[in-house]
């Protein structure tokens, strides 16, 4: 009897792009995040060389978290994360990044 084992989902920070006009590294939150913060992040699937995912799939944001006001944040997530998993990841970011804003 053979058992099919699914590989674990490994997430990584999405790489920012250099914005010539602003002269800084930026992530595109598509209007969902409006305040610059060290706590803002986007996570994408980390792909191993033997996995065949299109570049569009590799860039698909699975979880994004960002500041939209004083002590107000927004969180967007998609499958395969659950709301609980996404919230736990976002909550953990408050413990690991300095509150220097």
TrEMBL record:
<dbReference type="InterPro" id="IPR000007">
    <property type="entry name" value="Tubby_C"/>
</dbReference>
<protein>
    <recommendedName>
        <fullName>Tubby-like F-box protein</fullName>
    </recommendedName>
</protein>
<feature type="domain" description="Tubby C-terminal">
    <location>
        <begin position="5"/>
        <end position="96"/>
    </location>
</feature>
<dbReference type="Pfam" id="PF01167">
    <property type="entry name" value="Tub"/>
</dbReference>
<dbReference type="InterPro" id="IPR018066">
    <property type="entry name" value="Tubby_C_CS"/>
</dbReference>
<dbReference type="InterPro" id="IPR025659">
    <property type="entry name" value="Tubby-like_C"/>
</dbReference>
<comment type="similarity">
    <text>Belongs to the TUB family.</text>
</comment>
């Amino acid at each position: 009897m053979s058992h099919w084992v699914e590989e674990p989902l490994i997430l990584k920070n999405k790489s920012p792009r250099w914005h010539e006009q602003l002269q800084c590294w930026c992530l595109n939150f598509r209007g969902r995040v409006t305040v610059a913060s060290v706590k803002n992040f986007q996570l994408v699937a980390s792909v191993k060389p033997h996995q065949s995912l299109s570049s569009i799939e590799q860039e698909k944001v699975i979880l994004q978290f960002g500041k939209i006001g004083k002590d107000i944040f927004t969180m967007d997530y998609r499958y395969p994360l659950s709301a609980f998993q996404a919230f736990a990841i976002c909550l953990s970011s408050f413990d690991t990044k300095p509150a220097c804003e």
